[in-house]
Amino acid sequence: MKDITRTQTGVRLESRLLKVLKALATELDLSLGDLLEGIVLHAFEGKAPFSAATLKKIRALRTVYGLDLVAADSHQLREAAGER
To answer: Which of 14, 63, 67, 76 has the fewest CB atoms within 10 Å around its CB?
Structure first.
């Protein structure tokens, strides 16, 4: 185990994406922060963060929450008028 310092942050995320992330964290018995840290650390090393079994869970959760966004949509999103 490594000692670290965590900082509280107020990150804004797309609503359905957040629902899928929270549900996945619950499924994996992780906090949302731990899940996000793991995803980012894997991405920084060019590694896939999820096993085939976890990807299957993610596909099911995407369907449940109506998440139809894909990687190609990143940096192409804008908030609906009046949402901020």
So the answer is: 76
